[in-house]
Amino acid sequence: MEQVRVFGDFHNILSEDDVWKIGGFPLPDGTFWEYREPNAVVIVRNGILYVRAPLSRQHNQVQILDNAKHMYYSREEVKVPEEGEISFELQIRARTQGTVLGDLYDGYVSLNLLDFTTGAALDFFASNDKYASVYAVLPFPGVEVPESNKTRYFCVFKEDTNFKPREFNTYKITYNRGNDEVIFYVNGEEVRREKNVPIKFNQFTIALGIMTEKDLTPEGSVSVHGQTVIGEYSPVTVTIKE
Q1: Is 33 in contact with 27 (CB distance < 8 Å)?
Q2: Measured between alpha carbons, how far is 235 from 242 in angstroms, rounded to an integer?
């Protein structure tokens, strides 16, 4: 049995109760850290979400809060089938201004599949001239990560340049819970396969983001220096095969 769903409806992106919401995390002091750039320009045209964000947001203590600058979460969490596979596919166009040449992590556009029941994540990151697939279990604020007799937290990036720079590319992530396997595709070509995944994904929040990935220093954040990131996203097609 195959089920296909599309997460789009970007024309309602500013609504308080539709498909998407601004991402972020609650903090111990009771406040909420929003992934929202105050000067972002958001345009919806021909079904495509366009976000142009001059980067300004920083967090000096928590790495995950510093990384994402502007991000939308799907309001619905997509359940993973016990058997069979689930796939997420969309087109992304990434362009940046003022970022360091060849440094993907100085500013990029992202697709993030986030499981807040386990802290696990599957991602694609794309910039002007490079992209990366990402496989991780992270200490998200407020999320209880299962105990492990192996490495509990990790984030493994795999970078490549075999795509169409500054143009739309098709990104697809497929997860098979029964086989403990993740496959990443770019423009229909398999670019990475992770076998023996050590954690079971239960559900995914779909996130569309603009991010950096710069390690915090003893003095705090160094992720912002005047750069701008432009992301364009098609609707996300979710296919479940049971």
Answers
A1: yes
A2: 23
Instruction: Give the domain range for residue 62.
Output: 10-77+90-170+203-237
**pLDDT at residue 16 in the model:** 74
pLDDT beneath 50: ranges in the chain: none
Output the CA angle 131-182-162, nearest 5 degrees. 25
Domain-located, residue 182: no
How big is the chain by its Cα radius of gyration, in Å? 17
Residues 6+ positions from 97 with CB-CB distance below 8 Å: 227, 228, 229, 230
Residue 119 maps to a domain: yes
Position 150 scores a pLDDT of 86
Burial state string for 9-32 with b = 16 or more CB within 10 A and e = fewer than 16: ebeebeeeeebbbebbbeeeeeee
Q: What is the pLDDT of residue 147?
A: 86
Q: How many CB atoms lie within 10 A of CB 143?
A: 16
Is residue 145, in this structure, part of any structural domain at all?
A: yes
Q: CA-to-CA distance for 130 and 161, rounded, in angstroms?
A: 5
- Distance of alpha carbon 76 from alpha carbon 24, whole angstroms: 15
Give the model's pLDDT for residue 156: 96
Q: Which residues, including other chains, have CB under 8 Å from residue 65's CB and lie 6 or more apart?
A: 25, 33, 59, 141
In the chain, the number of structural domains is 1
Strand partners, 87: 174, 239
Predicted pLDDT of residue 197? 93
Name the amino acid, one letter, at 45: R
Residue 189 inside a domain? The answer is no
Tokens 């002007």 appear where?
128
